Amino acid sequence: VQQWKGVYGEMAVKAEKSGPWDVYLKTKASSDVYVTRNAIAVGGQSGWHRHPGPSLITVTDGEIVAYDSHNPLCTPKVYKTGEGFIDAGDHAHLLRNESGAPAETVAVQFLPVGATRRIDAPKPNNCDF
């Protein structure tokens, strides 16, 4: 795991709208913003955990499978190189490398200043592994 952290003051960023595309980012206090690179070996996993804020996760190499504790059937979601997804941070999740090749993700995380970046969580009852 490699990680970098920057502390940002209160944010109110609105990009110039371009056609249907628009973005607005607003916080009401300072934030710790982490960029974290995770290499996941063949058969490896992140362990069940959550974060106290949202994460934008991009698969930069290989393929990972994401499991969400809020999904009643613990249905796997596969993400391949170049694909991304958002973890809202309000529930436990687990990332696994079920492929036959190494995988890597980069996450950008927005957290309250001083918050613990990763909080380990127990395996949910709805997942059999």
Describe the overall structure.
- With 129 residues, the chain is mainly beta.
- The protein contains no helices and twelve strands.
- The protein has strands at 2-8, 12-14, 24-26, 31-40, 49-50, 55-61, 63-68, 77-80, 84-87, 93-96, 103-112, 119-120.
- The chain has a five-stranded antiparallel sheet, with no helix packed on it. It has a three-stranded antiparallel sheet with strand order 8-7-10, with no helix packed on it. A two-stranded antiparallel sheet has the order 2-3.
Please name the defining characteristics of this protein.
129 residues, mainly beta, five-stranded antiparallel sheet, three-stranded antiparallel sheet, globular
User: What are the secondary-structure elements, in order, as H or E?
Assistant: EEEEEEEEEEEE
Biggest sheet character? 5 strands, antiparallel
Number of strands: 12
H/I helix tally: 0
The fraction of residues assigned to DSSP E strands is: over 45%
Report the span from N to C terminus: 23 Å
The coarse silhouette is: globular
Overall pLDDT, averaged?
A: 96
- Roughly what percent helix? under 10%
Return Rg in Å.
16 Å
Strand order in the sheet with the most strands: 1-4-11-6-9
Structural category is mainly beta
Q: Give the oligomeric state.
A: single chain
Uncertain runs: none
